[in-house]
Amino acid sequence: MGNNSLSGHLPSLSDLPKLAEFCINDNNFSGPLPSNFSKHPQLTIFIAHNNNFDGELSSTIFDLQKLETVIFSGNEKLSGSLPSILDSPALTSFVMEGCNLSGKLPQTIKSNLNFLYLAGNNLKSTIPALPPSIRNVSLANNLLYGKIDDAFFEHLLDLEVFDIRNNNIGGTMPTSLSQLNHLEELRLDLNKLSGALPDDITEWPIYKKLNSTTSILFGNVWTCPVSDEVREHSHDDDHNVYACGDSIFVSAIAVFAGERANERKWLHPPTSTTKKNYNISFGSLGAACLALYFVATYFGPFGNMWVIANSFRRETRYTKISDGHALCNVVHSSLDLAKVLVLTAFALSIGYWNAPSDYDVVPLFYR
User: Fold this and answer.
1) Where are the domains positioned within the chain?
2) What burial class does residue 186 get, using C-beta atoms within 10 Å of its C-beta: 0-12 exposed, 13-18 middle, 19+ buried?
3) Could you confirm whether domain 7-245 is CATH 2.60.450.10?
4) pLDDT for 198-231, tens place per residue?
5) If we measure between CA atoms, which residue out of 260, 231, 232, 261 comes closest to residue 243?
6) Whole-prediction pTM
7) Which of helix, strand or coil describes residue 86?
């Protein structure tokens, strides 16, 4: 019944115990999905993507021993959570992109999955170990966190697509990716990955394949330099703007400006170590400015702020100092401070103009 203009709620399917394949995709059905799948023990295929179903997905669907394919993508109001253990023995394709799932990914997957597409939900967990049968994985645009172990991909030798962009995954580049001879699409952008890219990364099979795709730069904080071959192969980098963690001056400003300019926060904050460097740098800058300020104003014609404060403390109501004169002293000292800050910033800008930066091409505005 797919690809029609059918609407309304689904009628009860409980009187169809031999139902094996049920395809109602690309319609306008609404309301809940069946809640008791145990009445359909023969069900192998349930395809209902691009409808308007709401309510929660019943976990009883994962108890079906013959279930092979579930495709519920594009039902934005379809919510619920996934079981902690996914052990449907026949399940090979599980597709629920662009729904409203929450909770965690199954932390134990015993099914022989080939396709796992759960992008565009609200799943918040680490990425579990995947079965060796897996070929395509799409977990983009969720709330996933944690790190990917270096040996994560050692048993996923049939993997063709791995997409986890726009999450909160940290850590370094797993070197076990170099063992994947069938990998054709690798998307790691818009996460919190950091560290140095492997020296031999351009020798990995994905970089040698025709029509292969990588998106690993944008939004992460890789250590510079990043080779031209990696940049040219990465399709996420239309403007050559990506972070690499050598700069402790430009990157803080650039990442902050990028986050404010982009509601999706495509430029993620730097690592805690880099933040510490920023704090040290700007703390030192502030101390230097204050020192220069006191030196400059101490020898000025009106004295510095400290002298003025002390004079107010010592003077009595009989002193013939005018309020206007005191105000002029305060204003003049404030202008001295502004001049010192501007001159110090200008001197630092000259020094940092050609410094290693967070970006291969630093926009002039950031400079």
Assistant:
1) 7-245, 246-367
2) buried
3) no
4) 999 999 999 999 889 999 988 888 887 888 888 8
5) 231
6) 0.68
7) strand
